[in-house]
Amino acid sequence: MTFAVELKGITKRFGAFTANSGIDLAVRQGEIHAIIGENGAGKTTLMNVLFGLLQPDEGTISVNGKPMAIDSPAVAINEGLGMVHQHFKLVPSLTVADNIFLGMEIRRRGLIDRAAQVERTRALSQKFGLKVDAQERVAGLSVGIEQRIEILKVLARNARTIILDEPTAVLTPQESRDLFQTLRSFVDDGMTVIFISHHLEEVMAVSDTITVLRDGRVVATRPKQELTKRELVRLMVGRDVSFDRRPRHIVQGESVLEIEDLWARDDRRLAALKSATFSVRAGEIVGIAGVAGNGQTELAEVLSGLREASHGSAKLHGKELVGCTPAEIRDLGLAHVPGDRLARGVDRNAALSTNILMGRQKKAPFAKNGIINWTVVQDEMRALIKRFDIRARGPRDVARSLSGGNIQKVVLAREFTAGGDMLLIDQPSRGVDIGAQEAIHDEIMRQRAEGRAILLISTQLDELKALADRIIVMFEGRIMGVVDGNTMDEDAIGLMMAGVDPSDVKEDE
After folding, report:
1. Smallest Cα–Cα separation from 294: which of 470, 155, 84, 475?
2. Residue (of 300, 321, 302, 319) closest to 310 by Cα position
3. Can you tell me the distance from the alpha carbon of 51 to that of 47, in angstroms, rounded to the nearest whole number?
4. Mind spelling out the 3-state secondary structure of 4-26?
5. Domains of the chain
């Protein structure tokens, strides 16, 4: 059998760290081959080696049965490989067609033939069902359209094997399903797709063959029909993990957070949060759903005192938060897990014990009469390392020496034990592996059971489905609707995430 791609013994090291260790991978022509694994398993590194962005320390690569030395993306493209990266690389000021042909412009008499580029874009768009407006400028387009453009860029370069790195990370559920249909049409046309993901549902929905990586090694390659979601998790993590909706008792009490007609501007001074009105009660988890960049960040920053509100009110136990400093808001009882843990969650150059002290350096039992008791602080850090399974040697470890997932655990440990009765949690599972995600979810449910009010912002619908009592859906800074977590309709949520009222769709039907 001739394989579209075959890797043998691929090893890639970064200093003392081995990202890929002796990996064998064979991808058949005309299939969707998923590569799945936890964050840090080596998925993206392996694909960067295949595409020529990185050079392997050991091993060989063959494309369509021919051994290749792929020492640059240009060589990979010439051999029919294309890669759609997780972070798009488009020029906003250019049109769709100009972006697609950037670097390989169609020319006539020495000048760029933009009419020919538009015509070719339309032909590709129609052939593969990737609807775009060839003459529209990229600035202001949705991320779903931007991804179509990235795929068309690859197709315009005559790729027959396409690598997609976490392609659904910024898509609504409907956009994801459209993408899967497109990928299936590629295979029907004789092309090959390599699909990198750590989302189990989408891998099971779209792939033909699945390769599981763990700690930089291949632990299994099997046809999809031979695997269940539970078996996939066991292969990825090495044990059983549950992501079912968490059982809960009704413990909802009085309203803790009251938000009314709250507005805020983004860094460009444009309205990013518009007339938000909702409440969060004690013992309740209210989830905020939406594609990243639809006002969730501004909402979190206003509530935590990191951004000024331009209008409206946010009260914690009746006390106004708008206009307060972060320290004052913390003293009122709001603990905040920021979405960007590195920029706002920790001091990377400080010890873990110092990081855990932030925000309570003047409070008992950690300080008395302005003097910090470091023995108490370090004892607390040791206890939190054990409780939150932080992979560190001890309290004196510097934060930057930890992985991103473990830094996230440090932030969660500090905020979850801060003693406030309101938790603002932004992207709690970002950058953590599946096993750690389960532990984080357990801890969030523990906080709920203890009667804390929780506002949970997440771009992962599965996470909200597992945890939230109510789900608020945001689009372009506005609240599109509120959904009961026990009876959530993912299609309805997906429509609202795209700015569509589900009732309008039903009326049209």
Report:
1. 475
2. 302
3. 6
4. EEEEEEEEEEECCEEEEEEEEEE
5. 3-237 (3.40.50.300), 248-333+420-509 (3.40.50.300), 343-419 (no CATH)
Contact between residue 68 and residue 62 where contact means Cβ atoms under 8 Å apart = yes
pLDDT tens-digit series, residues 259-271: 999 999 988 888 9
List, in sequence order, every beta strand (DSSP E) within 149-252.
Answer: 161-165, 192-197, 209-214, 217-223
Q: Token digits for 427?
A: 């992207």
- Position 341 scores a pLDDT of 79
Dist. CA 433–CA 409, nearest whole Å? 11
Catalogue the E-assigned strands of 135-227.
161-165, 192-197, 209-214, 217-223
Per residue in 359-414, pLDDT (tens digit) is: 888 888 888 888 999 999 999 999 999 988 887 888 999 988 886 678 888 999 99
pLDDT in tens, 322-335: 999 999 999 999 99
Residue 81 to residue 70: CA distance in whole angstroms: 11
Burial of 212 (0-12, 13-18, 19+ CB in 10 A): buried
Model-wide pTM > 0.85: no
Residue 195: what residue type?
Answer: F
DSSP alpha helices (H): ranges in 400-460?
A: 404-416, 434-449
Strand partners, 80: none
**Contact (Cβ atoms closer than 8 angstroms) between residue 7 and residue 61:** yes
Q: Is 165 helix (H, G, I), strand (E, B) or coil?
A: strand
